[in-house]
Here is the input.
Amino acid sequence: MAISPSASDERDNPPLADNSLTEAELASSNSWFIHLRWMAAAGVLLAALFITTQMRVGFRPATIWGIGIWILLYNLGFFLVLRRYKSATRSPKDFRRLAYAQMSLDWLATTLLVHATGGIESPVTFFFIFHVVIASMLFSRQISFIFTGVAIALFTIVVLGEYFSLLAHYPLSALQNRAVHTDPLYLLAVLAFFSSTLLIVTYLVTSISESLRRHEAEVITLSESLRLSSARLQALNESAQVVNSTLELPQVLTRLVTNTARVMGVRACSIRLLDKTGKLLEPMAAYGLSQTYLGKGPIELQNSPLDRAVLQGPQLAPTVINIPDVHQSSLLQYPDWAVQEGISSLVSAPLIGKNRPLGILRAYSEDIDHFTADDEAFISAIAAQGSIAIENALTYQTIETLDATKAAFIRVFTHELRSPVSVIRSLLQTILSGYTSDVNPQQRDILERAIRRVDYLRKLIDDLLDLANGRVPQRAGELTAPIMLNGVVENVVHRYELPAREKSLTLEWRQAPDSASCPVRATVEGLDRILTNLVSNAIKYTLPGGKVTVSLSRSADEVCVTVEDTGIGIPDSLLPNLFEEFFRAPNAKELEREGTGLGLSIVRDTVNSFGGRVSVQSRLGVGSAFTVTLPLADIPAS
Ligand code: ADP
Here is the structure.
C-alpha cells in the first residue's frame, strides 16, 4: 500500500525531494553539514595562518582570520540550535529551515572570502561548487537552482562591484601588475563559465539525487507493503488456527466473525448461511452489530441484490463485492438500516463449500470507502479458509445426527432380534430336555443342530452389534477418564481360564514389571471387546495341548498387548485379507465350521477408534501373535 503525504505536508513543503527526507534524515544532514563546517572553518584559519607567515599576497590576512572566526561562531550557533531541536520534537519544516539558514550563511561567507582574496582572481571561487553539490543533495531541484542562482548573483555583485570600483579590490598577488578585474572580456568570460559550471553541476547532481530518492521511495513503499502482507499472512494463519480449533458450528462461526473484525480492524462482521432450500440467508453469527440491526432476520436471496451478486456473481461465479458508500449503492436491500447502524461501507465475500455456496461473510466499517483492493483479497482468503472450517463443522453435525440414529437403530436391533433368538434357543432347549415329551435320537440330533445354528445366529447378531459399536467414533466425553489396560486384560484372561482348561490348553498371563499401570484413553467395553475376540480366537484356533500367552509391555508413550498362540497359523498369502469383514481362512473353516469372520474387523475398528493400531505375525502350523498398540494417556494429577 502506498504511503501518501497528508495534504498539509504538500502545502508546506515543495514536492518530491523534500517530502522524501524524514525528520531523522533532515536532522542527520544538518549535523553532517555542521561537521563539515568545523573542518572548513579550521581550513580557513589555517590558510589565514599560512598567509600571515608565508605568503606575499595583495590582501590583508586579518580579513581571512575574521571570516574564519565568524564561520566558527555561526557554526557553534547552529550546533547549539540543532542540539535543542533534537531534544524536543520538531517538525521537518524546522530542520529544513535550519538547513536553509546554514546554506545562506555559507554562501555569504564564501562570497566574502572570494571578495577578500581577489574577487574575479580568487581561487576560493571553486568552493561554490562544493556548496552547490551539497544543496543539490539535500534540497529539491527547485530550491537547489534558487541557491545556485543566489551564488551566481553574489559572485556577479562582487566582480561587478570591484569592476565599477564600488567595492575595493584586493589582488591575489602583491606582485601582480595586471588588473584583470577591470578587463571586461575577462570578466564576462569568467562570469559565463562560473555560472554555467554551477548550473550544470546543479542539474547533474539534482538529477542523480532525484532518481536516488525515487528509488528510495520505491524501496520504502515496497518494504511497507511487504510488512503489511506478512502481517496479514500471520493474521490469516492465526485466524485459521483459531477457527479450526473446534468442530462445533456455533463456535466456529463466532470465532470467524470476531477474528475477521479484529484482523481487518473494522467495527463489525457477520455471517449468514443459506438454509437447506438455498433460498434463505439466515443470520448465524455477528460481531459489533446491534440487536436492532440483526432483527432483520432471514433474508430471501431472491430479494437481496447484493447477496445475489456475491453468491452468483456476474457469470454465476461467486465474487467479493465492495460497497464503498452505502448511501450511494443500489445493491443494498435495507440501506436505511445500515445508515442508522452507523455503517458507511461494507465488503462481502462468498463462503463456498465443496459442492455448493454456504453463505456470506461480511465486514462493516463506519468510514466511507474504507475497504481497499487488499482488503477485498484478504476477506476473500479468510472466507475461503472459513468455508473449510464451516463445512467441517457442518459435516460433524451431520455425523453426530447419524450417530444418534445409529445408536437408536442398534438399540432396536438388539432388542427386536436378539430377544426372539434367545427365546427360540430356550424353547428348543426345553424340547431337547424332554420336558414336553420324550425325544428320540433322530429328533435329538435335529434339535441339537437347530440349537447350534441358533447359537451361530446369536453370535452373528452380537458381532454385528459389536462391529456397529466399534465404528461409532468415540466422542471426547466418552474417553475422558483413562482406563487401566492391565486390569481389563486380566479380567478377560480369567474369563477364558476355564474354556482353555477344558480344551487342554495352557493359558498364560505375562505382564512386564514396568507395565503394572497402563492408562489408555478408551472404554472398558471396547477394550473388553478387543481382547475377548483375540483370546477366544487364539483358544479356538489352537489344538489341544497347545499354549496361549497374553502379555503386556510398555514404552515411553505406548502400551502393547500381545495374544500369542501355538495354533494352526494363517497362510502368508491370506494375511492381507485377515481384517476384512466375513473373511475366514480355509484352515480355520476346516477346524471350526462355525464362525462369522467379523471378530478381527471388530478388533481393528475398535482399536482405530482409540487411536491405536493392530498387527499380526503368523506362521502356518506354528502359531500366530496379534499385537494391539495403544497410546498411553496422561493421568491427571489428583
Ligand atoms: P472367526 O473367528 O469368526 O472366523 P475372525 O474375524 O475372528 O472370525 O477371524 C477371521 C479369520 O482370521 C479366522 O477365520 C481365521 O482364519 C483367522 N484367525 C483369527 N485368529 C486366528 C488365530 N489366532 N490363529 C489362526 N487363525 C486365526
